[in-house]
Amino acid sequence: QKEVEQNSGPLSVPEGAIASLNCTYSDRGSQSFFWYRQYSGKSPELIMSIYSNGDKEDGRFTAQLNKASQYVSLLIRDSQPSDSATYLCAGFQEYGNKLVFGAGTILRVKS
Amino acid sequence: SQTIHQWPATLVQPVGSPLSLECTVEGTSNPNLYWYRQAAGRGLQLLFYSVGIGQISSEVPQNLSASRPQDRQFILSSKKLLLSDSGFYLCAWSVLVDTQYFGPGTRLTVL
Known about the structure:
The structure holds two protein chains of two kinds. Chain A has no helices and eleven strands. Chain A is an all-beta fold. In chain A, strands 2, 4, 5, 9, 10 and 11 form a six-stranded mixed beta sheet that branches. A five-stranded antiparallel beta sheet of chain A has the order 1-3-8-7-6, with no helix packed on it. Chain B starts with a strand and ends with a strand. In chain B, strands 2, 4, 5, 6, 9, 10 and 11 form a seven-stranded mixed beta sheet that branches. A four-stranded antiparallel beta sheet of chain B has the order 1-3-8-7, with no helix packed on it. Chain B is an all-beta fold.
C-alpha cells in the first residue's frame, strides 16, 4: 500500500466549475498535509497547508482534512484554464521526519 | 524574502560521467535542505536531507552523494552516472521541517 495515494486522472472540468481533488494516506501519525501545484516542466509550488480537521480556505482554494477517515482533499472553485496542472498531495511523516508525496492528479480545465 | 537557485537548469550527460548539481538559498539562515528526484510520470522521491553544515542524511542507497559545504549551499554528486539517474532533480528548503519550498529544478538526461 502506498503511503499517500491519489487518483492519477486526468480530471477534466469545465471552466467555472468546482474541481475536487482527493488524497488518502496510511500513516495515522501524520499531522500536517500539503498541496502543491506543478505545471508541466516546472517545479512544485506550495499552495495550501492544513493541520487540523475541517476546512481551510484561501481564495478559490479550500483544503479539507479528515483524520478519522485519513483523507485530504482540495477544492478549486471557479476553475480556470490556468489551474490546469498536476496537483501533488503530501503528508509529513513524523517518525521518518519527511514529507511523503503522492504521485499527483492531473487536472485539466477546459474553456 | 527567500529565494532558491539551482543550476544548471538542464544537463545531458553520458553514462559513466560524473555529476555535480548545485543549490543555494538566499534570505534565510540555517535552513533544512533537501534533494528530491522526480522520474518521468512518477512521484517525488527524497534522496538526501541536511539540517546543517556537514550533516547529511541519505534516504535511498544509490550511486549519488550529497554535501553541504556552506550553510545555504547543497550539492548533489555522482562519480559515475547510470541511465536510471535521468530525471528532474529538485532542491527544497524549509525552516519548519514540514513546510518545504522547491527550487526551479535541474532536468538531467543520461544517454
